[in-house]
Amino acid sequence: MSRPEHLAPPEIFYNDDEARKYTQNSRMINIQLEMAERCMELLMLPEDEPCLLLDLGCGSGLSGSVAEDSGHIWFGMDISDSMLKVAKEREVEGDLLLGDIGDGVPFQPGTFDGAYSVSTLQWLCNADKSSHKPAKRLYTLFSTLLACLGRNARAVFQFYPENVHQTDLVVSQARKAGFFGGLLVDFPDSTKAKKYFLVLMTGGAMPMPPALGTENTQINYTSKREKMTKGRATKLVKKSREWILEKKERRRRQGRTTREDTKYTGRSRSGRF
Asked: What quaternary structure, including any partners, is listed in this protein's UniProt entry (predicted)?
């Protein structure tokens, strides 16, 4: 089966028909949402504090809805006019910009608290025109992105590299632009669940977050997706025991120090001493 980036440039491939799939195909929607949720975890944003995020290759705004659910504000950029039309029809909360991220991101220095991208970066590894040089386009993206991020901000790209050459190219251009960080692979021994994330950091080198699935390689990918979908359908009450447990579990996946769960976790206090 041919990869989408080999069939046509993104602005042509993501036409009106293809864009509709992102509001009608439940499998595509679930995968997109799951990847966006993982990007949010890897950004390691301040808790209980709204941030301004940049969604690169925002498409129909599905990944932006994950940022909204986390209490953040987002700005989306995409090369496909058809995808952005669908986003407008869905009445997404984020502002939208039509543009090619390979030409750079045109924002003021220090504008965003973080940036993320789902299933977009691999398109820049492909030369759709004779003037397209993948290394140059990647460097342009990363250098302009670095400039518009705030101090100690992160950028996370989930993408589908075609081979080792592409992963090396992406990581080398990001570091050349001034980013720290590198490649993180979730479920590296699973055929279905294996996912690549480029985790980029500003302001100095920091430990990489732990990858998922490195201890237990037997992954039920469908069950994991269904569990996350069910969790989205039932929004947890803030400060409830379930809300606290989910938040602590998210911190553990991010590699943050977290207190152990006990029978007292989330229990309301009388206020008496």
From this structure: Heterodimer with TRMT112; this heterodimerization is necessary for the metabolic stability and activity of the catalytic subunit BUD23. Interacts with GRIP1.
Encode pLDDT of 65-88 as tens digits.
Answer: 999 998 999 999 999 999 999 999
What Å distances lie between residue 133 and 110, 216, 225, 256, CA to CA?
A: 27, 40, 36, 39
Q: Are 118 and 36 a contacting pair, CB within 8 Å? A: yes
Cα atoms in the Cβ-side hemisphere of radius 13 Å centred on 262: 5
- Report residue 41 as tokens: 């975890």
Helix axis angle for 26-43 and 221-233, nearest 10°, is 80
For residues 83 and 123, is the Cβ–Cβ distance under 8 A? no
User: What distance in Å separates the CA atoms of residue 262 and residue 268, rounded to the nearest whole number?
Assistant: 13
H helical segments located in 61-113: 62-69, 81-89
How far, rounded to the nearest angstrom, does the alpha carbon of residue 200 sit from its chain's CA centroid? 12
Residue 37 and residue 150 in contact, taking contact as beta carbons nearer than 8 Å: no
Q: How far apart are CA 61 and CA 52, in angstroms?
A: 15
Tell me how crowded residue 245 is: count the other CB atoms within 10 A of its CB. 14
Give the closest residue to 187 by CA, choosing from 44, 35, 20: 35
Q: Which residues contact 19 (CB under 8 A, 6 or more apart)?
A: 59, 60, 80, 82, 83, 85, 86
pLDDT in tens, 98-151: 999 999 999 999 999 999 999 999 999 987 777 779 999 999 999 999 999 999
